[in-house]
Amino acid sequence: MMNEKKHVVIIGAGVGGTATAARISRQGFQVTVIEKNAYLGGRCSLLHQGGFRFDQGPSLYLMPKIFDELFADLDERIEDHLELLRCENNYKVHFHDGDFIQLSSDLARMKTEIERIEGTQGFGRFLDFLKEAHIHYTEGTPIAIKKNYASIWDLIQWRFVPKIFRLHLFDTVYRRASIYFKTKKLRMAFTFQTMYMGMSPYDAPAVYSLLQYTEFTDGIWYPLGGFNKVLQALETIATDKYGARFIYNTTVTKMNTKDRQVTGVTLETGQVIHADAIICNADLVYAYHTLLPLCPYTKKLNAKRLTSSSISFYWSMSKKINQLDVHNIFLAESYQESFDEIFQKHSLPSQPSFYVNVPSRIDPLAAPPDKDAVIVLVPIGHMKDDDQTDYGELVRRARSMVLDVIHRRLGIQQFEDWIEHEMVNDPSTWQSKFNLWKGSILGLSHDIFQVLWFRPSIKDVTGRYDNLYFVGASTHPGTGVPIVLSGSKLTSDQVCQGFDRKPLPRKLGEQKVEEDNNLFLSLVIFLLPLFFSLYFFTACLQVMNIKS
Predict the structure, then answer these.
(1) What is the DSSP letter of 36?
(2) Is 51 helix (H, G, I), strand (E, B) or coil?
(3) Burial of 381 by CB count in 10 Å (0-12 exposed, 13-18 middle, 19+ buried)?
(4) Whether 335 contacts 439, CB under 8 Å
(5) Which of 124, 382, 411, 447 is surrounded by the most beta carbons within 10 Å?
(6) Which residue range or ranges hold the Amine oxidase domain (predicted)?
(7) How far from the centroid of its chain's Cα atoms is residue 25's Cα?
(8) Taking all residues of the chain, what is their mean pLDDT, rounded to a whole number?
(9) Mean pLDDT across 15-28
(10) What is the pLDDT of residues 475-500, one digit of tens each?
(11) pLDDT for res 414
(12) What φ, ψ does residue 273 adopt, rounded to 5°?
């Protein structure tokens, strides 16, 4: 009986579900992945239309070392499965006045570009910015995405205290960028990346400048054939090499429970599939509301902040648009106001910033000859409670604004006439296609009190079920493809521990954070800054009272 394979059911064949299936099937578990849609990848899937191919969601292959680590953990080499193409330019960033900056990993070109806007001292400040981002990356990555926080004591360690200040956890991306860049243009050009995480740069913790660091040092890549090729490779490894099974077009309606166990899942057909453990890759907020018995924690989830949604256009163009690069950013003049409208009013900004991806610029097979596949992502607020929005009208407004910006900034008056075919995702379709709560495309936000231990844990956070685990954007460590891939390692390790199995060692990139067991010292050091802050605040109030 000791060698009997335990059956693990994974709900959802998204990035997290597919990567975790490959990992735990290699660990010797019997794995069944159940996916509601007819295709692999969730948001990381493809759309096809008349010879055109579009990435439905992610299109930026960032932090390549994490992908390398994943395939190495599966006893595979990524180059045996994927052909990765490096983008010559990272982005072409367009400003409201018709000016633009070409961001790349070429420092000589960056020097010219930055000094053109910031003056002769600008490049030195850019290098200082990268030095800080390097600290955020090298010190923040092991803590933020490669360590599990099963309890508060995993967080409260005295060795973390200096890192609170070095990682600028209580500062924002925009404020830190403003220290190094004097012009609004470069402050915008080096902060819009927080939208990868569905956050405003005015709210996102400054540590997330690690994204800019990896862009400039590792570059931006694209898998030939589309981002979904990564998932296809993982599915092949999981099924052909390690015996996992993927079931498509099958909806899970609930997780079955008994005492402190989840015992399996019930399908829409009424069929019950037994499980010794369940890993949920469905949207976490949706799962607690819909697939599990309601509990007080369900209401707590309603109070947590969500990331943005998007209106995404997928345009089949009748000709090549040479003015567009692979990755293009169009920034609104009212930069902060546009983010406020998204995250405070949960609406479409009156002046949206948006992202344009042209996969056919780097992968000719993404479009027929002499034509282009163009994807436009317009960030907007997530759906509201009892949402009554007319999304057809909202899509028309967004489309009109995007076309107007392209006409004015690129001087292409015939652009709309060249659109042969259009597909669209809006908040309501993101919700219906992928069960994304309120159409939030990146799950729970990454506010400082919604990350690390404060984020929903990998193991059932309510403590009701001993064999229920989560992986994906809304659980620890967070959102974004490379982050979720790192999370798949943490989740698979937790499942192994739940069955008293030793997780297989990592093949590459093992990064350990020193543990500290002196809880009293840790508490004292963590609480001292709080006490001093309160003391200082109280003293200031007393001085003000005396003066008054």
Answers:
(1) S
(2) coil
(3) buried
(4) no
(5) 382
(6) 17-493
(7) 25
(8) 91
(9) 98
(10) 999 999 999 999 999 999 999 999 99
(11) 95
(12) -115, 120
Q: Which residues contact 116 (CB under 8 A, 6 or more apart)?
A: none
What phi and psi values does residue 357 have, to the nearest 5 degrees? Answer: -115, 135
Cα–Cα distance measured from residue 357 to residue 327, given in angstroms and rounded to the nearest whole number: 5
Number of other residues whose CB lies within 10 A of the CB of residue 257: 16
What is the amino acid identity at position 360?
Answer: S
Q: Which string of DSSP letters, residue by residue, matches 488-548?
A: HHHHHHHHHHHTT-PPPPPSS----PPP---HHHHHHHHHHHHHHHHHHHHHHHHHHHHH-
On whether the CB atoms of residues 435 and 280 are closer than 8 A, the answer is no
The token duo for 124 is: 């030195």
**What's the confidence (pLDDT) of residue 230?**
98
User: Strand order in 272-274's β-sheet?
Assistant: 252-258, 261-267, 272-274
For 251-309, write each residue's pLDDT tens digit: 999 999 999 999 999 999 999 999 999 999 999 999 999 999 999 999 999 999 999 99
- Is the CB of residue 468 less than 8 Å from the CB of residue 277? yes
Strands 30-34 and 245-247, by their bridges, are: parallel
Distance (Å, whole) CA 426 – CA 309: 8
Residues pairing with 161 in the sheet = none
pTM (predicted TM-score): 0.91
Cα end-to-end span (Å), the chain: 78
Between helices 64-73 and 228-236, what is the axis angle to 10°?
10
Residue 144 is predicted with a pLDDT of 82
Between CA 486 and CA 55 the distance in angstroms is 22
* DSSP result, 257-294: EETTEEEEEEETTS-EEE-SEEEE-S-HHHHHHHTS--
Locate 537 and state its tokens.
């605040």
Reported as a single tens digit per residue, the pLDDT across 305-336 is 999 999 999 999 999 999 999 999 999 999 99
Apex 197 CA angle, 191 and 200, nearest 5: 50
pLDDT for 386 equals 85
Beta-ladder partners of 102: 92
DSSP-derived secondary structure letter, 373 = E
Find the range with the poorest average confidence among 20-29, 272-281, 317-326, 510-519.
510-519
For residue 289 the two structure tokens come to 């509301």
CB atoms within 10 A of CB 385: 6
CA dist 12 and 18 (Å) reads 8
Whether the Cβ atoms of residue 443 and residue 472 lie closer than 8 Å to each other: yes
Q: What pLDDT sits at residue 3? A: 58
